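Would you mind writing out a protein's amino acid sequence and the numbers that encode its backbone to help me picture the idea?
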Amino acid sequence: MNDGRLSDAALSVFPEPIAIVDRALRVQKANTAWTTTFVDSPLTETSLAAALAKVLSGETTRAEVTLETRSAEHTVTIVPVPDGDTRAALVHARPVPVREPAPRSRDERLPATLLRRVLDRLPVTVSLIDAEGRSVFSNDTRARLLGAAATEERESGTRALLIDPADADFVREVEARVLATGTEEIITSDVPTALGTRSMFFHLVPVEGEGEGERLVLCVGQDVTEQLRAERDLREQQDFIRQVIDCDPNLIFVKDDCGTFLLANKAFADIFGKTAEEIVGQHERALNEHARADGFLSIDQQVFATLEERTVEEEILWHTGELRWYQTTKRPLVRPSGEVHVLGCSVDITTRLETHRKLEEAATEVERRAVEAFRQAEAKAALVEELDQKLGIIETQHQEILTLSAPLLEVAEGVLAVPIVGAMTQTRAEEIMHRLLAAIVERQVANVVLDLTGLETIEMHTADHLMSIVRAIRLLGADAAISGIRPAVAQTIVELGIDLSGFVTKRTLRSAIFSREVARSAALARRR
């Protein structure tokens, strides 16, 4: 037998009002007959609520009450059914038939041959079973499912069970109860038939026979194999989609136009310390404090109003108290019914923003150090000039001053800055080139910035010295850039016709360093 729970397919084919009710007296599932018969929920009616409480508490395994509505009187049967780890109840309402006057003569009844043809055309199996368990009648639909067993049934008068053999004793027990109590029963079973194993839904109803006091069981069977297979395929598809979105580290969610969540993946639910199932049905304001929730809902309304995608950067508070930044894209999701929802996807950009902030701080620090280096270089250059005028310093001292006037500053990883202050002579150019080339090889330098902020004037031979240094740097495999060209120097370069088009130039040392850092970061990202 199935696990006792009625599937949606079984509910849909059942002709009378039927519903599954949980401990909170809420309808979990109901067929169309239930919703059309009971416009207002009957579960609050005193006698029905009391009977439900007894069944749901386990005090009794069956209860029956009479329920009167504006349109008709119903006999309501309540039995327990499993619902996962909890307990639920099956509520079955049968209208009390209004007795019609007995026909005046047999001639006024429906002819038996016509009735037989009608029953044989039905897509459901129909059979009548007597108190001894024998088959009194069966239609062609049942015979087709029985196959050869149907012929044997007719010839021998014995009954062929259209049921799983393992359920035979249970079925006979149910039939006996139907005859004894006069109440209807519902059973489901996977049935081996001439057409293969089929999932069947059986409705057993007590009926009066022709003889006085004769009681029969009318068994109506519905083949729900395809409906159950469709339900299973749908559940499998839903489980597959759930696994896919739960594997995505980005936040994925869907909300309706009221701000209620219709779907959420695991990554989104983790923010609130909940499961995805707990998020569904929650309103935005139930998950976030009102000011923050209002901001999220405002973006939603813009999407609904324009039916256009919106992308924003927003700060989201985790249940742990941590604040993280996300880039959220929201787009309209139009259902086949025309209903519009908001589909959202959020990417965590906290690390990216933190990296950008650190880069800016590093660039500021490099600029501060460069300014300090310029200040020191200018002070040292002034000292050199003063010593040259007063003492006529010796050649070794002169070489030391040359070194100090063009320091090699490692301003970033693999980046050397060479601030050039004062005039550029042949001797000084050779000294700078010698020290710089040695440092490139020794320190594995990838980028060199020649800063001319301290260069007051330039002549043709000075430009030649600079271009020679740049070419030498390139021969060693490093990139070279020139920064800090003053307006007066730039004007002189143009007037002298010096061609610097083949060289990378930047306005300030900071911009040169920053561009090198950006290029290096991009190269690292590509290698990854």
